[in-house]
Design goal:
Length: 242
């Protein structure tokens, strides 16, 4: 059987999203390629999470489109996954959370336990495999959510503010796992409003301001030579409404 073609690039064409009469995204266009880690950066309310949900397929745009170059074929392994700021934990053990995801993805039964255990080991949760997922700490739950996604071996992983609710120690642990997932060959697309995190985890920055994509640049160039007043103000920590 011929291997499926790559999903990427992801083509975002004039995407707008309106809710309650408010324009949340305003004609956003971009092509996201395989390889570099793409960080969607902007203040709270800039439209980052909505754009990510549209790309992942959880929301339909009001106008425009977000399309993969390759198709996700029925019955094929899940080729994209998403981890949210506050992950949903099922009422079962940590390892059974991962096994459930593998089951839904159609992974053969004789492979599920091995892959789930391997994923827990990679995120440092093997010792907690039998513990109910909902009693884990916030940082442990986020690491479990990453294990659940990583076990699927996705081509693309969307991360929506993955450390926004965590203390600095837990956040650094999650960042290390994200770096490892990228090093293993998965394309990372993530949102953040954290400038330091964008520098550490990003290769390219897509800067959103009030629903518009104002800049796109390699990470170092974005921070050293912002091309718009809005990006310059954001980097300096100035409030976007002043």
């Amino acid at each position: 059987m011929r291997a499926p073609s790559s999903l990427l690039p992801l083509r975002i064409d004039e995407v707008s999203f309106v809710a309650g009469g408010r324009v949340i995204l305003d004609r956003v266009s971009a092509t996201i390629d395989a390889g570099p880690r793409s960080v969607i950066l902007g203040a709270n309310g800039a439209g980052k999470s909505v754009l990510m949900r549209i790309c992942h397929g959880l929301l339909a745009p009001t106008s425009g489109s977000a399309r993969w170059t390759g198709a996700e074929l029925p019955g094929s392994p899940r080729r994209q996954a998403m981890v949210f700021q506050r992950p949903v934990m099922l009422r079962r053990s940590a390892i059974d959370n991962v096994i459930y995801a593998l089951n839904v993805a159609g992974v053969p039964a004789d492979e599920r336990h091995r892959r789930a255990w391997s994923a827990l080991e990679r995120v440092g949760l093997a010792a907690l495999a039998a513990r109910p997922a909902r009693v884990l700490s916030g940082g442990e739950q986020q690491r479990l959510a990453l294990a659940r996604a990583w076990a699927l071996v996705p081509e693309v992983l969307f991360l929506d503010e993955p450390t926004a609710s965590l203390d600095p120690t837990a956040a650094r642990e999650v960042e290390s796992i994200i770096a490892a997932i990228h090093a293993a060959g998965t394309k990372i697309i993530m949102t953040t409003h954290n400038l330091g995190q964008a520098r550490r985890l990003g290769d390219e920055i897509l800067f959103l301001d009030r629903g518009r994509l104002l800049e796109r640049a390699p990470v170092e160039r974005f921070f050293s030579q912002p091309q718009t007043a809005q990006a310059d103000a954001f980097i300096k920590g100035e409030l976007p409404w002043t």
